[in-house]
Amino acid sequence: MTRIAVLTEGSVSHEAVNYLLGDQPSELVHYQQITEVFRSTDSGNTDYSVIPIENTIDGSVSLHMDWLIHEVDIAMQAEWIYPSVQNLIGHRNEFLNKAGDLDLSKVTKVMSHPVALPQCQQFISEHMPHADLESTGSTAEAVKIVKRNPGKGWTAIGTRLGAATHELDILADRITDHHNNFTRFVLIGHHPLELQRKPKGNRTSVLITLPEDFPGALHQVLSAFAWRRLNLSRIESRPTKKQLGNYYFYIEVMESLESVLLTAAFAEIEALKCQVRILGSYPSYAYDDALNSYRKIGKSGGILNG
Ligand SMILES: O=C(O)C(=O)Cc1ccccc1
């Protein structure tokens, strides 16, 4: 059976891969840290790894992009978007006042993934301004830690699946400051994955290094795509880590590598003495479904009393 590495049970990544796979059978192998998720497929222990790479609120997840570029050489095989709906999770009985209502001023610590904490900044400063904040390997790791440490006033920010899996209470639901909070995930692996669901389109991701002392090189690179009417869905500069001020351009094109237009664009860019490293050419799934689920989730949320 296909083995897929993913963050801890009940993480956003876990919800997201369940959504991508639907009923398709596969074995999920869970890890505490994203670096272990990367290494697992790199070492051949799993066939694929699930990596969150971009968030509507924070933008690129830098650590994950860096691992994709510098630490492993595993192709991107699919991308999809999934909403991250965050909740405040803890042992409910620790936060009740005499009237039996929740009193979040009793919270001493809020733990979560470093991408999830800033997403809930307004909620935290309004309801728990004095709580310590602590980062964990995933939202679900935070839930597990809180579960193992009752009586300390600790809480976690995480998913409904995380609260259910680790048997903790949801103290407040949908607490992200912006409700259009989506994360883009990629599935990386050495072979394409056949999925039952139909893709919405194709993407090709590429790293382009510009030659030194070539004024206007980026303009020429972009022109190679533009005059062929190849749409770009993302462009971002990333440090090469070799020298201060040296950058790659990470570019995503809304086209498959099977397109002769795209291969011709890459050949033209290489002729300009740029280096082209293809990170993957893969199907893109279900953006509309993600939007529909956002509509279903609705906008309001907050502290759950009673
Ligand atoms: O920590 C998790 O649950 C993850 O899967 C990483 C993450 C965190 C916040 C938004 C999207 C993904």
Nutshell version of this structure?
With 306 residues, the chain is α/β, with parallel strands linked by helices. The protein has 3 domains: 1-82 and 182-191, D-Maltodextrin-Binding Protein, domain 2 (3-Layer(aba) Sandwich), CATH 3.40.190; 87-175, 3-Layer(aba) Sandwich (D-Maltodextrin-Binding Protein, domain 2), CATH 3.40.190; 201-287, 2-Layer Sandwich (Alpha-Beta Plaits). The protein has 10 helices and 16 strands.
Task: Give the helices and strands, then pairings.
Elements: E1 3-7, H1 12-21, E2 27-31, H2 34-42, E3 48-55, E4 59-60, H3 62-71, E5 76-83, E6 87-90, E7 109-112, H4 116-119, H5 121-127, E8 132-135, H6 139-148, E9 154-158, H7 160-165, E10 169-173, E11 182-189, E12 201-209, H8 217-226, E13 232-239, E14 247-253, H9 260-271, E15 275-285, H10 287-297, E16 302-303
Parallel strand pairs: 1-2, 1-3, 5-15, 7-8, 7-9
Antiparallel strand pairs: 3-4, 3-11, 5-11, 6-9, 6-10, 10-16, 12-14, 12-15, 13-14
Helix pairs in contact: 8-9
